[in-house]
Amino acid sequence: MTESEADLLALLRELDDPGWLEWPQHYDRGEAAMHFGVLVARLEGDFAARCTADRTPRTPASTDALSCPGTQPYAALGSSSA
Description:
Elements: H1 5-15, E1 16-17, E2 20-24, H2 29-47, E3 52-54, E4 65-67, E5 74-75
Antiparallel strand pairs: 1-2, 3-4, 4-5
């Protein structure tokens, strides 16, 4: 799908929460944290390795980060620090 830059910017503005532009509308930090915990547990189970989950926000728009043995630290999806 090809979109013009103006169309993409308009879509992003439409999805922004008017009261908090760093997050999309209806973003629930608690629900996102729960899903992140499920992801970490699944990765640990699938790869039989202990992963490190860093849930310390660095900026208002950043999200959790995780690293697993043998990988480089990777910012979770949705992170502005990726």
